[in-house]
Amino acid sequence: MLKNFLHKILLSFKGEKHIAPLAVLRMAFGAIMFISTIRFILKGWVYDFYVAPKFYFPFYGFEWVKPLPELAMYLLFAVMAIASLFILLGLFYRISITAFFICFVYVELIDKTYYLNHYYVVSIITFLLLLVPAHRYFSIDIIRKPAIKVTQVPSWTINIFKWQLCIIYFCAGLSKLNYDWIVQAMPLKLWLPANESLPLIGPLLTQTWVAYLFSWFGAIFDLSICFLLLNRSTRKVAYIFVVIFHVFTGWLFKIGMFPYIMIFITLIFFSEDFHFKLIRWLRSIFNKRSLQVEDVAVILIFSPVKKKMIYFLLSVYILLQIVLPFRFLLYPGRLFWTEEGYRFSWRVMLMEKGGTAFFYVKDPQTGRRGEVINELYLTPLQEKMMETQPDMMLQYAHYLSDIYIKMGIKHPIVTVESYVTLNGSSNQLYIDSTVDLSKEKENFLPKKWILPFKKN
Amino acid sequence: MKRIGILYFGIAVAILSVVAFSCKKSATPANNNNNNNGNVNQDSVLLNIGNNIILPSYQNYAIAINSLDSSIGDFNQGPTSTKLSNVQTLFKNAYIAWQSVSEYNQFGPASINIPPVSGLNLFPASTTVINNNISAIGTTTININSFANQTAKGFPALDYLLFGTDNVTLLTDFTTDANAANRKQYLALVSTDIKTETSATVTAWSATGGNYINTFITSSGNSVSSSLGLLLNSLDQDLEILKNYRLGAPLGLVFTTTTSPTQVEAYYSGISAQLALTQLKAIQNIYLGSGTYGNGLGLRNYLITSKAVYSTYTGASLDSTIKSELALDITDLEAVPDPLSATIQTSPAVATDAFNKTQQLVVLLKTDMPSLLGVAITYGDNDGD
After folding, report:
1. Which of A417, B203, B226, B242 gives A433 a disulfide partner, CB atoms 3.0 to 4.6 angstroms apart?
2. Cα–Cα–Cα angle for A210, A212, A215, nearest 5°?
3. Model confidence, pTM
4. Shortest CB distance from A426 goes to which of B9, B368, B370?
């Protein structure tokens, strides 16, 4: 069976398929990104996240990425909004998708405080959309240049998205298979009762069995949904589950656009026929006459060089997608506690973690030691995120060291007394409070100064 | 059949993994976080905090401010030493009353109104700016709410104007001094500003005014914009002000621009420790639910309902842990004699003890409590933890 399964996967990358699913995906993605970008601007987050902070937490290796001045940041978001509209319309597609990709990834790299799995999904989908000819059907580009229109595209251009979604759901499911989630129904046991005041289901949410039901259902859903979506006979029911699951989680938790992005993108699992009909229906709204014009079958064939390049890129990307979620196995200690290898692994809403960090700066010459008021240097969101993530604490400690050197302390000793709670445990010391963090370097090695988690 | 096979394979993997992981650890002592019974309706907690604590505190505070303002008006008519000491007493009363409403500074009317009421207590006061303003009256119009004047207004300014030196000198400052008329005018200006800002906030809260009390009572849930989220957040920030600015900075335990005992709140009137104690007791009241009309439901009832456990070793509940930490912290603060600025120089250890206890309290209220209540204190979208 497994052999058959693998064989099927390989086969799915060969041959040709109708382009309709790609065109629909392009429009759906463009639309949701437009809404998402406008929402981001309207919420004032451009200012709050990329203008207001005095200090940013870049990703390791991307310390050179810095925010632009205020006006330029707003322009960048305006470019993203326009580009996503153009993607929707299929207008100047290559330029718009490239512009969107560059702007989006740049913004995400500025500060890891705002890292969300859904931004990671968007980055990846945009990257994949860069590689596929999503504009060569039902787009303004083919009105501009009718010669580029095609009807059949290599199957991989469509299946690669399904593959990505399967990875997301399955990894999300695997990460739920841990003691806290399955046996303790944590953190849902903490999160659900907080929605007690919701109409109808509110009172139910305070029941322990409901927390277990949700935990188990969530795990089984994540693990099985891609198989159910791939299977023609279960697809429709599966998609209804997708919609219910995401709308429900979107209603219960503050997870922004994520549910809607997933609901839109999973449409790709439907058949060519489904998408073809969808496009015919859209056409009938705009222009009745165009229905009479039958598509002439044109197969898109990539040049051998282009094909090789794309296959190479895709292999690297697929390999990374398989390896990254499991890199945590290389680190000692409890993943949720140390968060070493946590990001970029489709771990969504898995734990309830909170912390308070008191940073101390000591002048070795005078012996004077004082606590730092974090509020003076970080925004509330940055402070909150930093307080549970060791790599961010390290970055902040280095930043404090720089500040106090400027204030005249020659070799400031920066330590932190940090208390963290995980999934309802009582707070406990998180970081070795004797370690001078200003002397510690960031790298991929395990951080020895993270104290082990004690269950209590 | 093959397709069905894949489906079964998926489900089988799921079930097997579940079983495997469940068996990894055998049954541990029951986690007491279930919420089966003894539910307290969230709304009834908000109702008690709103009507029994917040509104009476604001009313009490508004009354104190009004009496202070009219006593200042009376004093300015013809300063006498009796009137001065009357103003001084009423100032202390008002400053003490303020400590029971500062917990609500970070949300609702107190933060929405412009200028925000929290700006009434930015200490230490800048005596230079105050004195410059006094001299400048008559030649320029003083905008008390400009950025430059942020430490020349509110309670710290009154503290300096009414206690800046001994009473005999003060009286001459307001009577025979060359700047006496200007000083009286500035005193009135600061007092009027406090009164205006206070009444705007109190009116916005009251049922007959802006009726924010209704919004507060009905915004249940656990998001950052729910009343529970807003209150907990605001309370934590207020507690951090106690830790960082009322105790930490004057003690030299916290880095601010300058660190000295003169940085205490109410340096001139010398009631700093009393103010800090009042503030902490106000926090305790919100936690316990005690107010003007007796004991009711407080923040602790959320923890009791969710049976939040602090330590499975000792079996201590989070509620009892926070309750005793609050009590210990209050005992420690009670042991700190006023004036705090002098205590810091003569016996800093007592004040340091109180500081350390406050730090522990911050951890419990900022980390354990929101976590166990599932209160999402988030400022953007969320998916990480």
Report:
1. A417
2. 110
3. 0.89
4. B368
